Every structure is written in structure tokens, then in C-alpha cells.
Amino acid sequence: ASSTEISILGQKYEVDGTTNITQSIIAKLPLRLHNQPAHPLGILRSKIESHFHDFVHLSSVHPVVTPAQNFDSLGFPANHPGRSVTDSYYVNKDYMLRTHTSAHEVETFATGQPKWLLTADVYRRDEIDSSHYPVFHQMEGACVFKTDQVAIEEMKTDNARLSRYLGQSNIVIEDIPHISLTNPAQPTHDPAHSELVALNLKLSINSLLLKLFGGGARDAPLQVRWIEAYFPFTSPSFEVEIFYQGKWLEILGCGVVQQLTFDNAGIPNNIGWAFGLGLERIAMILFGIPDIRLFWSTDPRFLSQFSENKITTFKPYSKYPACFKDVSFWIPEARLHENDFCDLVRDAAGDLAEDVKMIDSFTHPKTNSKSVCYRINYRSMDRSLSNEEVNNIQAKVVEQIKDKFGAEIR
Ligand code: PHE
Question: Which one of 65, 71, 87, 102 would you pick to mutate in the ligand 1 pocket, going by the greatest count of ligand atoms within 8 A of its CB?
């Protein structure tokens, strides 16, 4: 492949000055964790889909979108910070990786489906820590109503049913007005109609949260709080939080869909709601997963703990600290296969070597000798390693490098 093109999911794209998508991000694109039935994200997706059982369920939509899909079609202003190359991954100036599942609202509304859920991987440039990762998963849900009197009566009936159900449930809801001066109905909506839709949204989300987080009748009630929010593509807009382990946690954003979205989708005479939730955030709570990076683990110690349709608590398999040691050496005539080095480390350290990474390499232009630096992560699954023990193993590794490869340590 020429360096002016990149290949993404089998499709070639021109590279330009906007391109900032990396190979490690490209490598995530085919994984679709949310489509693995026994992965926590897949289990959670199924659970939410089973709650919204009369919705259409979409989960294989291509991640490359246009900035028009991701931003313009939803009424994002031209200067919105999310558009910048520091915040989003651009394939080139015309294509990007979706930053949210809302990027597919217009095209999905255009299918005429009145009720749908859409689950997908989304991409944002962000720091990496225990709760941030540049790839995560969202679920968009939406419900469209016709605007005639029959549709209004149906919604009222549905609202009454949901209210009765929630009234009998072990849930405490801190609510705010459906519409207000700072969180208004849209100019084209009858305020009473907008309130009805916002109420249907709130009742639908509250019952979802009860399904996901509600305990038994003897447990403390689930506490849910509704907060005023702002999104360019909804009004009124809300954020929903639940009280969990002493803290209010943001769970999702939602609101009454902007008329512009329906106009762009070619279904102008409708009214409806939409929400978008982050699957990792919720899965970390439900499965007790302490670090967002674990979702990407292929370690059987992680994956084998989960099975289809079951929410179980994750048991950490190594809570002992890691110990990193670096070693740099010259390989004569640049010949050494990485597997040879790994086998050498395994010989010296056995199961105490968790991970081996080359962190630096350099080929001398004249001698053609190659200098490499490897970082070894030592960790025991069942005890804390002493520094002395690790130093002894590392000394053995260094010894073997000299003996086996005839290499010169730097
Ligand atoms: N797309 C929004 C986000 O990523 C969430 C959202 C979806 C808000 C739908 C309102 C309606 O934060």
C-alpha cells in the first residue's frame, strides 16, 4: 500500500493533513466487543435490548462517517470543539470515526422505524486512565411518535402504564420540570405535547434503570436524579445520574429530538425522544470491573468469567503490583527474532513474566548493529514479589542475553 492511503476495514482512504487516526486505533475497528455475546459489553447490550424488546436492534453500523453525519446533520455549530483534530479521529478531511452513536440518528430515522436501539463502538481522543479509553461503546435509543390525536392518546396510555409500574417499584426519583425557561420546548412544538414526550422519555429511562440497577424489595431504593443538560440535537435536554457507592454517577444524556434531525431524515411531521448511554460506564458498575482497559483483554482469566445473559461480579485475578525492568543491548548484525528474546525471558522468569515489550530500537547506520530496549513486566498472580527476587531474575536475563545472543549490554 502506498503511504498516501490507509486501509480501514478493507476500504482504502486517501491520507491528507487532517489524518490523525493511528494503527492502534485502526486495529480496534474490527473487534466489535458489543457483538460478543459472552463479553460484558455484549451481555449488557442484550440486557438493554431485552428491556426495549419492541424496538429494532442495530449493532453493525460502519464506524467511518462524514463530519456532516457526526455534527452538521445534528445542528452542531461550525466552531464546536468536538470537531477539532485534537478531540476526534479523522481518516482525512472528508471522513472521521464517529464520536457518538448520534451520528446515525438521521439515517436511522430516515428508515421510518419508529423505535430503535443502535449499539456501536465510538472514538474520541482522550487521556488513558482507569475510566478513559480512546475507544468505547455507546447505545443510542429513540422513539418517534406521529403528531395526531390518536398518537397522543396512545402516548398518554403508555405513560399511565409506566407510571403505575414505577409507582410500585423500589425507586426514588429526583425530577425536574419537563420544560423550563432554560430548558425549553422547541418553537415548533406545542409545549403540552413536548411535555408528554419528555414524560414518556423519563418514564422509559427510569424503568430501564430499575431493570439494570434495581435491587430486591428489601434493598435500599434505587436513587435516580434528572438534571438539566444541553445538546445541540435535543431540547429539552437531560442528563441522568444514579447514586452508587456514595456518589452520583452520570449514566446517560437524552432529550426531545430537535426538529432539524427529523427534517434532515425526511420525516418532518413527527415528534420523539432519544438517549445515548455509555456501555463501559454501566458495565464497570454492574460487573465490578475496575479498569476500562480490561474490556479489551483477551486473557482467558478475564473472558472466561463471563457467560451469555448473566451479570456476574468480576473477580480480579492479580491484585499484586507489577514490577517493570528495562534492558538494552546491541544485537550483532541486527539479527534477533523477538520470540527468541521472549523464550529467554520465560526460561529465566517462568510465569512471573507477565508482559514483554520492546520500547525502543535503533540501527547503527555504519555497523548495522541494532540496539533494542525491552521492558519486562514482572508480576505474580498469587503473591507480592520482592525487589530482590525480581533483581535476581533480571540478572539472569541479562546473563543469558550475553551468553545466548553474544550481545553487548548497554
Ligand atoms: N450523543 C450524546 C453524547 O455522546 C448523548 C445523547 C444522545 C444526548 C441522544 C441526547 C440524545 O454525549
Answer: 102
Is the C-beta atom of 278 inside 6 A of ligand 1? no
Question: pTM here?
Answer: 0.79
Instruction: Give the per-residue pLDDT at 82.
Output: 92
Q: What is the ipTM of this complex?
A: 0.99
Smallest CA separation from ligand 1 atom 7, residue: 276
Contact predicate 95/85, CB 8 Å: no
Which residue intervals of 214-310 are DSSP H helices? 259-264, 279-287, 300-303
pLDDT value for 383: 73
Distance from the alpha carbon of residue 4 to the mean position of ligand 1, in angstroms: 34
Give, for 345, the enclosing helix (H) or strand (E).
Answer: helix 338-349
Q: pLDDT value at position 129?
A: 57
d(C-alpha 286, C-alpha 212), whole Å: 8
